[in-house]
Write a structure and sequence with these properties.
Blueprint (H helix, E strand, L loop, with lengths): L2 H13 L2 H8 L3 H15 L4 E4 L2 E4 L1 H22 L9 E7 L1 H6 L1 H11 L3 E7 L2 H9 L5 E6 L7 E9 L1 E5 L20 E4 L5 H12 L6 E4 L3 H9 L5 E4 H9 L4 E4 L6 E8 L6 H14 L3
Parallel strand pairs: 3-4, 3-5, 8-9
Antiparallel strand pairs: 1-2, 5-12, 6-12, 7-10, 7-11
Helix pairs in contact: 1-2, 1-3, 1-4, 2-3, 6-11
Length: about 300
Amino acid sequence: MELRHLKTFKAVVDAGGFRKAAEHLGYAQSTITSHIQLLEEELESPLFDRLGKKTILTETGRRFLPYAIQFLKLYEKAKEIREDDECPTGTLTIAAPESLTVYRLPPVIHEYKQRYPQVEMVLKPSPNREALSRLRTGETDLVFLLESEWKDPDLVIKKLVDEPMVLITPPDHRFREISTSTLPALVEETFLYTEQGCSYRMLFEDYLQKNGIAPKTSVESWSVEAIKQCVMCGLGISLLPRIAVQSEIEEGKLAGIPWKEPHSVATVMAYHKDKWLSPALKAFLQMVNQHAIRW
């Protein structure tokens, strides 16, 4: 049952005949006849009695008419459901690791909510692997990751800013630099790692492995904040993005040794290539790009 057939049926009723309906719709009269015949075949009953020059609804036609009108009204209502580019609405779901949800995204989200209060924001702190999984299943609209640059044929990926890494130690720690002379001493340190699959954990582990360093002890934590507190208490050392430790270093609570290795990470955002970019999502992407210029 096609919408155009319903429109033709309603036009015949309103016009009182096939010829006038054809003139109104701009169809040939044979097209009007064909549309009505197809409806009658689906309903297995005639819709009109053709009595001379008069076209009168049958009992089936009278009973069918309210449904046809309702369908056509629903269609017109459906056409009205469109989001205004000047006033995005709906829900925007974002996934990102802890470092970005705490240190990069809050100013963006704050400005966005002030400008578009009618958009519901859902922020899901997620490790990189989990965030990507959420994106591929359609659970989230957009993800932010701390990653080395990579390509994925199913995703639109944009690098926003390089994120310098810092080896953090307690303020009174003996390390002041990472060099060939200090590398052997790393074996004696307790390494505080983020969760498995974290890009900069893998970066750190790869560096240690290439230099033949196998730490005697290590501790894993899903929380960057917990790692910082542990380092402050002298429980070990860790490699974290500078954005996550900048204030503690400036306040003297931590010491930071710049990570000078060529391989590093960046803040990137990604969405599925087949994702419909709603006005809400378009506005958020634009705002992120504006903020990223200042990062």
